[in-house]
Amino acid sequence: MRTFINVEDIGNLQAALQEAREVKANRFAWQHLGRNRTLLMIFFNNSLRTRLSTQKAAMNLGMNVIVLDVNQGAWKLETERGVIMDGDKSEHLLEAIPVMGAYCDLIGIRSFAGLTDREYDYAETVVQQFIRYSGRPVMAMETATVHPLQAFADLITIEEYKTVERPKVVLTWAPHCRALPQAVPNSFAQWMRAADVDFVVTHPEGYELDARFVGNARVEYDQHKAFEGADFIYAKNWSCPGVTRPEDYGKILCDDRSWTVDAAHMSWTREARFMHCLPVRRGLIVTDDVIESAQSIVIPEAANREISATVVLKRMLEALN
Ligand code: CP
């Protein structure tokens, strides 16, 4: 595997899930693969889970790890071409990328959407430059439009907790005080469509996800109807994807607190499990009682980030060896 960005990159999902089970049962069995190999993790944005779980995954596989926080201690990087660099940015990404590639075997990148230029964000300009100029396999650690390590961990978790063969999985928008990217819901939608689940998306009008991710999934604007019979509730905020009105891209269109997932919402479901990628703002996305309830599986979900990252890095190392 040379890149890990979209669900297609992982190939057969059942095979990937089986591999995840094997990795979880014996996560140090492939230490030889990473010997004398280095993962460079590049963070343009903050992280807790991705940073720790991916580093742990690399250590499971016997790799060395270098972590670069671009905004803390590195030269400020210019990402646009054709600009006169007379501001505070000392280095261009187009020199920095091949230099970074020279020090490692695999690259992981976290680079969020700017949420001002839809075309720039949805072209995945930063990640594409890494793919083109680093000479190394590149793994998304949440980019402008996708978060596949999270979606893979989410799917592993659903497989572990499902009580029916084909569970109903509901992705619900929930309110937030800041404009957030669409990467998590995009990838979740993409992976759920590829999985054997009954997938429903619910959100206020104006929050339609991009068709390349949501495809022909059922969209239900009535949150109550969407929750009925659900086995899994996956809550997440996202800002306007600008599908119907490009001028609204990245904006907060709605602050309707009736979308916050509380106990009444959960009572509409079939004793659904509650999921969220974390970090989560309590009182906005979900109430304390729901996230602390026995139905909440946010902690095992986060723990499975180590498993998804181990499978992905393992496959990337196997392609190198
Ligand atoms: N879910 C997730 O990616 O968490 P972090 O932003 O803390 O890495």
Question: What do these coordinates show?
Answer:
The chain is of the alpha/beta class and 321 residues long. The protein has 2 domains: 3-146 and 305-320, 3-Layer(aba) Sandwich (Rossmann fold); 150-301, 3-Layer(aba) Sandwich (Rossmann fold), CATH 3.40.50.1370. Helix content is 36%, strand content 15%. The protein has 12 helices and 12 strands. The strands form 3 sheets. The chain has a 5-stranded parallel β-sheet, with helices on both faces. Helix 1 crosses helix 12 (298-320). It is globular, with a radius of gyration of 20 Å. The mean pLDDT is 97. Bound molecules: phosphoric acid mono(formamide)ester. Phosphoric acid mono(formamide)ester binds at residues 47-50, 142, 150, 277-279.
Give me the secondary-structure topology:
Blueprint: E1 3-4, H1 13-25, E2 38-43, H2 49-60, E3 64-69, E4 77-78, E5 91-92, H3 93-102, E6 106-110, H4 118-122, H5 125-133, E7 138-140, H6 148-161, E8 168-173, H7 183-194, E9 198-202, H8 211-214, E10 218-219, H9 223-227, E11 232-236, H10 263-267, E12 273-275, H11 288-291, H12 298-320
The chain binds phosphoric acid mono(formamide)ester.
Supply database-style keywords.
single chain; binds phosphoric acid mono(formamide)ester; Rossmann fold; 36% helix; alpha/beta; 321 residues
By CATH, the architecture of the largest domain is named 3-Layer(aba) Sandwich
Within CATH, the superfamily of the largest domain carries the name Aspartate/ornithine carbamoyltransferase
Helix content: 25-40%
Question: Largest sheet, described in full?
Answer: 5 strands, parallel
* Estimated radius of gyration: 20 Å
CATH class assignment of the largest domain: Alpha Beta
Helix and strand content put the structural class at alpha/beta
The third-level CATH topology of the largest domain is Rossmann fold
User: What is the succession of H and E elements?
Assistant: EHEHEEEHEHHEHEHEHEHEHEHH
DSSP summary, beta strand count:
12
The rounded distance between the terminal residues' Cα atoms is 11 Å
Spatial order of the strands in the main sheet?
Answer: 1-7-6-2-3
Bound molecules: phosphoric acid mono(formamide)ester
Shape, principal axes of CA atoms: globular
Enumerate how many helices there are, as a single number: 12
